[in-house]
Specification:
This protein is mostly helical. Helices cover 76% and strands 3% of the residues. It has a two-stranded antiparallel ribbon with strand order 1-2.
Length: 217
């Protein structure tokens, strides 16, 4: 039978992650200490180091949790395309569905931006962040492929690169919105410009009949 500490580990990890997210939100990544996170979670430093090697590793675990929530929202939005009326813009519908930015999302954006700057200054942290970001981007690229399938279109560019561009538009738009919330909605740029961009980087799939007819001429 598993020992008690082994069975309690998921609960300990979850409490440390929750405490870290709250502490990071209040004090920032650099301002938050491991001691403060442990105190908020009700654990000792020993419990922290039995779950996470560094504060950076703790952030990356939070990154993976947030990434999964992003993938879940995008998946639901793509799946919901089957319910749209024929005259609706599918790309705009997906972007609108996932564009809600509440206080929790705002806090995460501030934290992730701070950690990105931290990683840019530290090559080891940059490599770790790039690895986790790459896994999220692979999921997003796969969902873009599903979206093009639903649109009856074939992408003419690399989906990984398109996922990078889509993320850049989203994050850049959000940054400008947080600076000027009265002038720019969080996803206004993405909802306005990504639909025509997706048309420009894809082409309609040809049917078998069309390909056969072309071969006969």
């Amino acid at each position: 039978m598993p020992k008690g500490p082994t069975k309690r580990r998921p609960q300990t990890t979850a409490r440390l992650l929750e405490a870290a997210l709250d502490t990071f939100a209040e004090r920032g990544f650099h301002g938050a200490s491991i001691e403060e996170i442990c105190e908020r979670a009700g654990y000792t430093r020993g419990a922290f180091y039995s779950n996470f090697r560094t504060k950076e590793a703790l952030f990356l675990a939070l990154f993976d949790l947030h990434a999964q929530s992003v993938v879940d929202r995008l998946t639901q939005a793509v799946d919901a395309l089957a319910e749209l009326p024929e005259d609706a813009d599918p790309v705009r519908a997906v972007l609108t569905r996932v564009s809600t930015v509440d206080e929790a999302e705002r806090r995460w954006y501030l934290l992730s931006t701070e950690f990105t700057l931290h990683a840019i200054r530290r090559p080891e942290a940059a490599r770790a962040l790039a690895e986790h970001d790459g896994r999220l981007r692979a999921e997003v690229a796969g969902l873009l492929g599903r979206l093009f399938d639903r649109l009856g279109r074939r992408p003419t560019v690399d989906l990984d690169t398109l996922a990078r561009l889509t993320t850049a538009v989203h994050e850049g738009s959000l940054a400008q919105s947080l600076v000027e919330p009265d002038r720019l909605a969080p996803e206004e740029l993405a909802v306005t410009f990504l639909p025509p961009l997706f048309d420009a980087v894809s082409e309609k799939r040809r049917t078998r009949r069309a390909r056969g007819s072309r071969g006969e001429t």
